[in-house]
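ZP: hey, is the 0O2 complex queued? I don't see it on the tracker
AM: it wasn't, my bad. submitting now with these inputs:
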Amino acid sequence: MDTNNASVDSWEEVILIYSSAMKEMVTRLEILSNEFQHTHSYNPIEHLKSRLKTPESIVKKLRRHGYESSIENMVTYVKDIAGVRVICSFTSDVYKIAEAITAQSDIEILSVKDYIKNPKPSGYQSYHIIALVPVYLSDQKIDTKVEIQIRTIAMDFWASLEHKINYKFDGNVPEEIRNQLVDCAGRIRDLDDRMLSLNEEVQKANAPGAETKQQ
Ligand code: 0O2
């Protein structure tokens, strides 16, 4: 990244804007979470994490895609400078949250990648949205990109271990371990499906009038 004074100033400004967009998205998700809890006595969000991409990681990504390190390139080509991760209990919750965020009229959805329906060859499963969130400054509105990754606890468990393994092997994970990870991802999918069915059965059994119907 350029380090002359003018650039450092705009770097700080850029980070302020991304950090504001990230906070805004977290607040929107917290509101949804509270509303679900209040209205349905049920919360589809287990927890939320947010992070700003480090300068090193931004530079690495730009290099990987063949771009020079500049603020302009970073704003144009790095779509996950501001990232929010939403961890849900069940796969159905992932889609509920995605739908609720997508429906917000002042958010523009730039792209959606459904790695749950179409997992990556690595086995990675998650639902990704790149959204433009309006950030209101004193004299202007800046639409800012935020990446939202939504997945289940089990998918997150897999992704975090796979990330650590990749880091340990510097990206060159031996084939045997890669195959095991793909196998684990399949088991996680089965587990998520079973947990969802189990939860639906319990919901049905506890629904008003269920006992009389069963008798
Ligand atoms: P980090 O360190 O998490 O920020 P892009 O590379 O973003 O320009 P791409 O590859 O189409 O374009 O984006 P994609 O597939 O939506 O992936 C974006 C992010 O998803 C990654 O960001 C990871 O966080 C996560 N991800 C994607 N594939 C995998 C995977 O196979 N395993 C794990 N553990 N995470 C994955 P970064 O910047 O690559 O990494």
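AM: back. The CA atoms of residues 123 and 186 lie 7 Å apart.
ZP: great, adding it to the tracker
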